[in-house]
């Protein structure tokens, strides 16, 4: 089973391996910097556990766990 961004704990970093979405969501995530080889760090979890703030390309982006689960990491 592939490891995804949703499984990353706060303080951990990883590299994006692939984005397993199609269409506009995939394009939008790639525009935000979620490209293969990009380094991503989990920064904060909201009080209710969703969304999670990630640092990518010197930017902080909040993603729902359902979207983060579509981003494979290594």
The coarse overall form would be globular
Largest sheet: 5 strands, antiparallel
Spatial strand arrangement across the major sheet: 4-3-2-1-5
Low-confidence stretches: none
Instruction: Tell me the name of the CATH homologous superfamily.
Output: Ferrous iron transport protein A (FeoA)
Q: Radius of gyration, rounded?
A: 11 Å
What is the annotated CATH architecture?
A: Roll
Number of helices: 2
| Percent in strands | 35-45%
Q: Helices and strands: which structural class? A: alpha+beta
The domain tally reads: 1
* Oligomeric state as shown: single chain
Order of helices and strands: EHEEEHE
- Could you say what the CATH topology is called? SH3 type barrels
Q: Termini separation (Å)?
A: 12 Å
The CATH C-level class name: Mainly Beta
Descriptive notes:
The protein is an alpha+beta fold and 74 residues long. The protein has a single domain, classed as SH3 type barrels (Roll), CATH 2.30.30.90. The chain contains 2 helices and 5 strands. Strands 4-3-2-1-5 form a 5-stranded antiparallel beta sheet. The chain is globular and about 30 Å long. The N and C termini lie close together (12 Å). The model has no long low-confidence stretch (mean pLDDT 93).
Q: What key phrases describe this protein's structure?
A:
globular; single chain; 5-stranded antiparallel β-sheet; 74 residues; alpha+beta; SH3 type barrels
